[in-house]
Amino acid sequence: MSSQSYDVIVIGGGAVGENVADRTAQGGLRTVVVENDLVGGECSYWACMPSKALLRSGAALAAARRVPGAAEAVTGTIDVRAALNQRDSITSHWKDDGQAKWLESAGIALVRGHARLTAVREVTVTGDDGTVTVLTATHAVVVSTGSAAVLPDIDGLKDVEPWTSRDATSAKQIPPRLAVIGGGVVAAEMAAAYASLGSSVTVIARSALLGGQEPFAGELVTAALRENGVTVLVGPSTTKAHRDTDGTVILSLDDGTMVASDTVLVAIGRLPRTHDLGLDTVGLDADDRLAVDDTLLVQGDSPALAGDWLYATGDVNHRALLTHQGKYQARAAGDAIVARAAGSVVDDAPWGAHVATADHAAVPQVTFTDPEVASVGLTAAAAVKAGFRIRILDYDLGNLGGAAVLAVGYVGKARAVVDLDREVILGATFVGQDVAELLHSATVAIVGEVPINRLWHAVPSYPTLSEVWLRLLEAYGRPGFTDEAR
User: Which of 133, 155, 184, 394 is the 20 to 30 Å CA partner of 419?
Assistant: First the structure.
């Protein structure tokens, strides 16, 4: 057994942990990352990057077929092997040499193995070869262990060896038939990807797809999936699974339906990876998310948490299960750690330098189906529930000149949710081809609380999809109009 001392210990070497470590190292603190799998984490190898690579071929082909001239040039189908090879390239063939070298170049130490908290500011790491290293932190320990897929307690499900998102994004072969249990982002994206790659896909969702979004988002995505040959079953639940002697998986649904497939993907949600981290040694629940304040300090009544030393960033705190939000938290936490270590003032007021304020009501997200769904801030329902007096602005994106150039028969919709008392935008949702690039302008407007009357002077270029901003403003009315006139 060996012992090492650092200023900061980061448990988890994914994108979030890397960003924490980068900020603390840049702040002059000796930092070590502990990782039990691949440096770069879920996003690099099993989530964001490979899933988007799997989706890209189908989206590009569909886009070309919507443009006269290009459509006539499309004479074949997707080369599945080439698409999978591109995915493999993007994931660096599941090797983390490059990511490990980046840590070294940034002056960040790396210890490989399973980490457990064993005392205040102490982490014990057990390597695959059984070696034990005890790490102590002068200032902070940061838990950035992410989340794992949930497997429901369905009779026989484990026996049919279901896929989780990791399996779906790293598969070497495309199954002829794929059943997807779930209706969220992962379910919708993987249904779209595998359908484009040749699978016969069935989605089984207890409620409407993309339920946390504006209702029209799920409706348009469901319609597009069905148009592309996906069977979408909304309402029933899976009650039993078994594999026949010929290898076929049969799913029994509570409405009497039987779904046959070769492979089953379960995509019903994620749980924080807090099990076996030794959280109980500092008075925390070993199997629950880590509650944090806006500087990402772990909260709790345990005396062991005194001294502002334990932080949790990313999925493990369950605030916003998105890589970019986790990295945003990481920057805030890393800078807060540096400030506290130096005895400097921590700017923990809303929108301050050391907080993750955007987690509460300004979270941007893109679902990379075809059509894409890009949203930020509050939905209309969430805004009403929060007590805002709102106005909903809707616009058919197909009426834009930019949409007409982009695709024949463009289908899409935009919505802005306006706070009538302050006359600022609370939320925005765009559904359609290539709408992801509209999202950051909406995010800036919401985070900056840009007044509607000032947005009139942000002139969108023509002919682009960004012209939707003008159309939404026109729906609201020129400055000086009364609510009645509008």
Answer: 184
Structural tokens at position 167? 């399996």
pLDDT digits (tens, 9 = 90+) for 266-277: 999 999 999 999
Q: Going by C-beta distance under 8 Å and a sequence separation of 6 or more, which residues neighbour residue 288?
A: 272, 274
Alpha helices in 171-210 (DSSP H): 185-196
Give the C-alpha separation, 105 to 294, whole Å.
Answer: 30
Instruction: Compute the distance between CA of residue 182 and CA of residue 6 in angstroms, rounded to an integer.
Output: 43
CB < 8 Å & 24+ apart, contacts of 170-175: 170/45, 170/46, 170/50, 170/91, 170/94, 172/84, 174/80, 174/198, 174/199, 175/199, 175/261, 175/262, 175/263
* Pairing mode, strands 270-272 and 263-266: unpaired
Question: C-alpha angle with apex 433: 149 to 188, nearest 5 degrees?
Answer: 20
> Token pair 């599945």 is at which residue?
80
Consecutive H or E run containing 210: none
- Full-prediction pTM beyond 0.85? yes
CA atoms within 13 A on the CB side of 474: 8
122-126/413-419 β-pairing: unpaired
**pLDDT tens-place string over residues 138-183:** 999 999 999 999 999 999 999 999 999 999 999 999 999 999 999 9
Enter the tokens of residue 453: 């009357």
DSSP state of 255: T
Find the farthest-apart pair of alpha carbons in the chain and give their distance in angstroms, rounded. 76
- Number of neighbours of residue 114 by Cβ within 10 angstroms: 16
